[in-house]
Amino acid sequence: MEVITEVDQMVEWVRECRAPRVLVPTMGALHEGHLSLCRAARDRAGEAGVVVATIFVNPTQFGPNEDLDAYPRQLAADLAACEAVGVDVVFAPQAGDVYASDASVSISEATLALGLCGGSRPGHFDGVCTVVAKLFNLTQPVAAVFGEKDYQQLAVIRRMVRDLNFPIEIVPGPTVREADGLAMSSRNAYLTPSQRQAAPGIQQAMVALREEIAAGKYEDSPSTAVEALEGRLEQVAGSESRVDYVALVHPDTLQPLESFWEDGELRYRLIVAVFVGKTRLIDNIGAN
Ligand code: AMP
């Protein structure tokens, strides 16, 4: 496995590389969720292709009061994990190399990025789109793998790829969970033992709501279901939890849901963000 830390080196490497590339962008502190995406990339690339994973804690997607400085960094362990799942190249640049100090161009998605996490984290998706576009340009992949864990991010990236004609297939990867149901996240490391114990309650409450919706408990009123889940998630870690948002949205448009049903089938995405202590956890599930 090759490790590239300089932007110029990456450009040079791509210029020489004849094999099709499949990209897995990450911010490191890798867990099974990330590694599942690397395995999917390995499958997609096949024997002739090359898997490029990037490890870059992108400053432009963090707000001024967010956890950029505290974000876990563990490059040596990440490199070993990448090698073990068949990654061919890791690109791990420094922020000062990726962004000119007077950078003045960014990419903004103006519809899907507005609500949900975009509402709570102004500028977040501009940072995401900009860095992903840069990584696309630097690595020129035929495909890139993104996790459904970040459902809105996946939708925004798909839209960017469509609207800017990036010739790149976006491959989604399902959310990988701990044995107790908690969605894996690098941020789970921030949780205290008692918070960690309470955190699986988020997914349990979401799954319970999905069952209630299917059983007709909320008839066809998504807003009533949202209110019910908000109340439960507020309590999930006692006084330590605070709901950022709960949303039932259309899975493609991310617009607030008007009906649980489409063409005779239950169809929606349930998306939540909950603070447990200072840690903001996100999760989402579909109707089935
Ligand atoms: P991050 O390092 O948090 O920026 O995530 C990098 C990629 O891994 C993104 O495409 C995420 O959606 C994906 N990812 C993060 N956590 C998980 C998970 N638990 N399951 C699947 N994919 C994940």
What do these coordinates show?
It is built from 10 helices and 12 strands. It is globular and about 60 Å long. The relative contact order is 0.13. The protein has a 6-stranded parallel β-sheet with strand order 1-4-3-2-5-6, with helices on both faces. The chain has a 3-stranded antiparallel β-sheet with strand order 8-11-12. It has a two-stranded antiparallel ribbon with strand order 9-10. The chain is an alpha/beta fold and 288 residues long. The model has no long low-confidence stretch (mean pLDDT 98). A hairpin with a 2-residue loop joins strand 9 (261-262) and strand 10. It has helices at 7-16, 32-45, 75-84, 95-98, 116-120, 124-139, 151-163, 193-198, 200-214, 222-234, and strands at residues 2-4, 21-26, 50-55, 89-91, 143-147, 169-173, 236-239, 241-249, 261-262, 265-266, 269-276, 279-286. The chain has 2 domains: 2-173, HUPs (Rossmann fold), CATH 3.40.50; 186-286, 2-Layer Sandwich (Pantoate--beta-alanine Ligase, Chain: A,domain 2), CATH 3.30.1300.
